[in-house]
Amino acid sequence: MSPGSQIGQCWQQRGLSIIILSGMIPTMKAPPFNLIRTAVAWLAWPGLLAICLAIAGYGFAVCHPALFFNLAYALLALCLYALEQTMPHEQLWNENDGQTFANIAHTLTSKGVVQSLIVFSAVIDLTTYVTPASEPGYGIWPRAWPMWIQVLLAIVVAEFGFYWAHRIAHEWKPLWRFHAVHHSVSRLWIVNTGRFHFVDSFKSIILGMLILLALGAPMEALTWLSAVTAFIGMLTHCNIDMRFGTLSRWFNTPELHRWHHSRDLREGNKNYGENIMLWDHVFGTYFNTRDYRPPAEIGISEMMPPGFLQQLAWPFRENRRTAD
Ligand SMILES: [Zn+2]
Ligand SMILES: [Zn+2]
């Protein structure tokens, strides 16, 4: 037998064994692969949140809360992005909608405006009034309680402000036009987590945080609240096939938030909670069903311009047009 025919035979045999093996792979791999996927689907939301909270907690313990918060946030973004690519809830939502630049620009602008207002408030000496509110001996806040209970209390109290800020934004047209920027996307994924018109962001933060400041909550509780809201916010918008069970009864999970982005207002004008669903239960706006899937086609009935700057100007123009 010539070396050429030997090689040919060898490749034929190898080809045959590849065909046999590749036929076996699905049957061999399917059960453990499915098992891992199911485990990840159930553990991703509580597991990633717990890891992020642990990292943030370590940051507080070593007096570098901002550094460790940012590390946890970056890690969360990486994990969620990898999961969105491997086990998406809607395959269609992984396709480019041309809004990535606008999403990031809105995120940076709303964060930037809030930061600038904090600096501006310091310049005009607003801190003379705000700082005493977070100093010991002010207000009725139970500062002697363990910090984790104070953080839970801060979440419940601030959520009352977040809930009404969000609900008014849906039910009162002049404010809806600002919030519509967030709802104008045609897909949900981690990059549109922070897509808020800066006026919309500012209004929510003011309503949520002012209640806590007025009650005299300490800065540590406020910082914890900001961290929890940031982690849960990114989880809420991710496009991952996850399972939640009873968690969706009390926490704002992606399962609930997908209903909130529905075009059908019987589903969309529901689930206003930012982190927890307590106030939705109290005020009768909680919605969830597992009888059918949340809509893959999401968005708003109005025409939102595609460009970032036009989107910034759009609510002002529409409000003026209505006033005319
Ligand atoms: Zn909304
Ligand atoms: Zn949203």
Features:
single chain; 324 residues; mainly alpha; globular; disordered N terminus; binds zinc ion
Bound molecules: zinc ion
How many β-strand runs? 0
Return the average pLDDT rounded to an integer.
87
Gross morphology is globular
Low-pLDDT segments, ≥5 res: 1-28
Instruction: Please indicate the percent range of residues in DSSP E strands (runs of 2 or more).
Output: under 5%
Largest sheet: none
Helix-strand pattern, N to C?
A: HHHHHHHHHHHHH
Gyration radius (Cα, Å) is 24 Å
Which class best fits the helix and strand makeup? Answer: mainly alpha
Number of helical regions: 13
Instruction: Say what oligomer this is.
Output: single chain
Q: Count up the domains.
A: 1
| Helix content bin | 55-70%
Termini separation: 93 Å
Folded structure, characterized:
This protein has 324 residues and is an all-alpha fold. The chain has one domain. The N and C termini lie far apart (93 Å). The site of one zinc ion (ZN) has 4 residues, from loops.
Could you give the topology of this structure?
Layout: H1 3-61, H2 65-86, H3 100-123, H4 127-133, H5 147-171, H6 173-183, H7 198-215, H8 219-237, H9 247-250, H10 254-260, H11 265-268, H12 278-282, H13 308-323
Helix pairs in contact: 1-2, 1-8, 2-8, 3-7, 5-6, 5-7, 5-8, 6-13
Bound molecules: zinc ion (2 copies).
Quick rundown:
The protein has 13 helices and no strands.
